[in-house]
Amino acid sequence: MTCFLLNDPKAVFIHIPKTAGTSVRAMWATPAVRRSYGHIPPDWQDTIKFAVVRDPEARFLSAVKMFKYGSTGVDGTGEAPRMPDLDVDQALDVIDNPRVPFDRIQSHLRGNLKRHLMPQTHPFNCLHLADHVLRQETLKQDISKLGLAGLSPLLQMRLGVAETGDLTLNEGQRARLHRLFADDYAQLGYGFDGQIARDVAVKRPPATGVWPLWPAFFSDRDIRLENASDALPADDVDLRPFVEDVIAGVPKSTWPARSDNLIEHFHKLLPECIGQARIAHLAACCIVVIRRSKGREGLALFHRILAQHSDVVFADMNSRWLTSVADTLADHGQNPAQRALGLCASLLSGAVKLAETERLIYAVPRPWPPKARLGEDGVMFDGVISFWGQNGDMIENLLERVTKSVDLDPIGGQLVLEMTSRILRHDTVFRRSAELSGVPDVPYISQDLRARLNRIARKHL
Q1: Is residue 55 within 8 Å of 153, Cβ to Cβ?
Q2: β-bridge mates for residue 440, sequence order
Q3: How would DSSP label each residue in 120-148?
Q4: Average pLDDT of every residue of the chain
Q5: Do residues 410 and 317 both lie within one domain?
Q6: Which residue has the higher pLDDT, 84 or 395?
Q7: Do both 311 and 452 map to the same domain?
Q8: What is the mean pLDDT of residues 128-138?
Q9: Backbone angles phi, psi at 206, to 5 degrees
């Protein structure tokens, strides 16, 4: 979960929620120096690393009670209940729901609950990286195993207001909990009766997620433009986990104010990318760095993402970010064709944006279908005549040329195709003009549904 770098004495505390973590950190006289989420940075590796675990059922009920009833801190102060209507089945549903986020980057109430409930052996909790795994049940004795001098005495552990309250598990709920926490029971040595049956034997998980691959993003670091290369993953990072990881949460639009701290700015972009493969968000963050550094940083990773996974990125990104990709290719494409096609996509998006902005500004009601349609005599300006909906072939010709552009450059051509399909799919001047011909619309599925189908196909085919 949250890994704390503590000083005096120096140690890395892998804090798993609801295992007396607040009491443990209070043993140090000074607050944590740094924090990381889901990974331990390379420069911490030589420091002693420890974690505390707890009987899965007791920990689960403690977390539910804290969110339902509130809690009492180690200093005696109270904490108001955050989810007073929470029940056991709802809590189990949160653990079982992959769409609920847990990575601490997003402010999300159910996500915060999931962080407190999720299995202790989940890779994000970093338990497999601990040198010492202590038990909450015997913590006062176990803490001496660390051999750290100068610690304050262990204070009274943080307790839920109703730690021995009325929440219990029925037979079906307990069976479901045993299934959801099967790895915890198998590796942490607890029996289903809550007793310690075996020693802790934590296994390294087969996949450790994107968190160690993008350490800066999952941390509290403040990285400015002069150190922009530190804000992104390494240029040769394994991209497959970013493709497979879908960002969970509630989708929101973003128009973030510029943050000088690149990590903070990256975090602000995340709500716009909910439901997308994380590689689409990574590509957006690359664009931020490329623009601010004028192409000095982030460019190699950006081109590698497009070269290997443009199909995922283009399918998941919204049109605003597709336009940013087009602008970036226009400025920093790898060959003349790619730069030209990037410019084409950028001009196409910009022209439609201007046309739709003018319509939004004037907001004049327009009957549909129109009472009259312009024909060959619809002269507008400088010899340009209006589009003739009944017999005009401008849009068909445009689509034919766009299709041929793929032969010029696979990435640039694919981008122009994607941009054109978005413009024809949504309520834009292109779609409305095409409808003037009376020809039925080409059936399109929504962008979200198409992205979901693409992810299913990539996973199972």
Answers
A1: no
A2: none
A3: TTSGGG-GGG-SEEEEGGGHHHHGGGG--
A4: 88
A5: yes
A6: 84
A7: yes
A8: 96
A9: -65, -30
